[in-house]
Specification:
Length: 275
Amino acid sequence: MPKRQSQMRWSSRIHKSFTAILGIISILLGSPYSHAATSLQPQTSVPLKDTQLLDEIQHRAFLFFWERSDPATGLTNDRAKNTFGEDAFTVASIASTGYALAALPIAVEHHWIEKQTAYDRALITLKFVHDKLACVHGFYYHFIDKRTGERVWSCELSSIDTTLLVIGALEAAQYWNGTEVEKLANEIYHRMDWQWMRTNGGLTPNKMVVSLGWNSEKGFIASNWENYCELMTLYLLAMGEPEHPLGVDSWKGWKRNEVEYGGRKTLAGGPIFMH
């Protein structure tokens, strides 16, 4: 298959997956009614059709990420403290920022924002992450101030949340391939030192699984990504990283907890994030 055609199909699959995820997030966070969202409110009591309802949920989900991102840094609120207007909450998370990056191409394809406007936001975000956001061995602090990027709550360098940030960056890179957005996203990705995170900085060289993270005051978190959950995303990203990748054996390092329910065998998972 020609490279360009393959990229387009891969990008389309990502768009569909993240569109579904954004709809779920909208439900979990609460629909972000605000000055920009008021036009989406139904003007009559006539029930929406299924496709209209899905579009409404997706649009509101996008608006959370658009409106709750700092326009100067691109960093995105971890949550909304006030869903009905101005929100003074300034704590961002790198995972939410990753979802915001992934939401931009979706919004363009739905004609919710102009492509150049979305590109400008992606570029602002990736420039800030690349040039100004503190990282250690390519991993970023979980929670930061959206205005400055400074670490808050004495939080950890998070392996999974950095993963979600980078996946969002790579989604934007695929959509705007051949641009500075792609260049910055790839450079951020290639910084990730997975061997450092796997071996606890070299202290446990034979460990097959990745630590949840590292804290500058306490060192590596004792718990690892070792049970079936959203870790699949982390390991796939880590095995594909060209500079400091995990070996393919790490894919076999985490446990598959098989259960039977309703006559079907499946894997028992943890939180909803895995879906």
